[in-house]
Amino acid sequence: MTWTDRLAPSLAPSLDDFAALAKAAFDALPDEFRRLTGDVVFRIDDFATDEVLDSLGIEDPFELTGLYQGVDLSRRSVLDFGAQPSMVFLYRRPILDEWCERGDVTLGALIEHVLVHEIGHHFGLSDDDIHRIEDEA
């Protein structure tokens, strides 16, 4: 299923469906981009945890569609021992909500957008950097 039509809530894509769409989006990225991403762990959850939302000062869990957690490549050192793996979280319910509200993009394209945005943070880019790159593309 391409998830391009508006569906009844009972037919909303599952966490596994999201994982498959995220994998397809990642696999479609240029080889060099994927190689530079390295061993980032991708995780799909319905929402960010309360602790994450509190740490970011976000009250409405629908406001956060994705999150990069880890030490970005620009700040890594060979002296970093025992560091946790870098992770990209995609939050299913906020992404679904945005997809339904927008109506101008496929679910796969929206997942790809959030995924690439969070990988941008892994590369050390700020939100402003990412938005500038998107505007220039």
UniProtKB/TrEMBL annotation:
Protein name (database record): Neutral zinc metallopeptidase
Pfam families: Zincin_1
Superkingdom of the organism of origin: Bacteria
Alphabetical list of InterPro entries matching this protein: Zincin_1, Zincin_1_sf
